[in-house]
Amino acid sequence: MKSHSMVMLRRNFKHVARNPAAVNSDMTKGIINRFKVMDVSRSAILTGRVIASLLTNLVAIAALVGVAYLLGFSPSASFPDWLGVVGIVVLLGFAAGWLTVSLGLAAKSPETAGMASVPLGGAPATGDVLAALAWCAGIALVGYLWASATFTKRA
């Protein structure tokens, strides 16, 4: 994997690492209880957290690439290659978003939830695209199911 895609992946993981503490804080401070009395779908609360994280990552990656171009970055990759890299980064952000939301729901306090995402700091260096897509889809599905089940029990 090229260094520019590794920078985007690291940026993605750095942002998603804040999700568990924020979700756990919402659960322990009563924000979720306020949503329960409103006409808000249960799934919308968790999905909103993941989508907001994904959009923030997209803006940050666009700024990162824009500044790199302004500083003279001249990639050898074609436009479809760049779309593929951004697609993988977005899919990985989506998968990590659901996993970190479920870690935050499972933790007992915001402090322990903040430590739950530390193992996510690494990123794969090489690999097959189809395997990466399958892993991302699997992680997202497991994270979503775990988050939904935990949220139903706790909220």
From TrEMBL:
Main location: membrane
Domain (ABC-2 type transporter transmembrane): residue spans on this chain: 23-116
Membrane topology note: Multi-pass membrane protein
Residues passing through the membrane, by range: 50-70, 82-107, 128-147
Alphabetically ordered keywords of this record: Membrane, Transmembrane, Transmembrane helix
InterPro entries documented for this protein: ABC2_TM (IPR013525)
S-adenosyl-L-methionine found in the keyword field: no
Pfam families: ABC2_membrane
Name of this protein: ABC-2 type transport system permease protein
Organism: Amycolatopsis cihanbeyliensis
Higher taxonomy: Bacteria, Bacillati, Actinomycetota, Actinomycetes, Pseudonocardiales
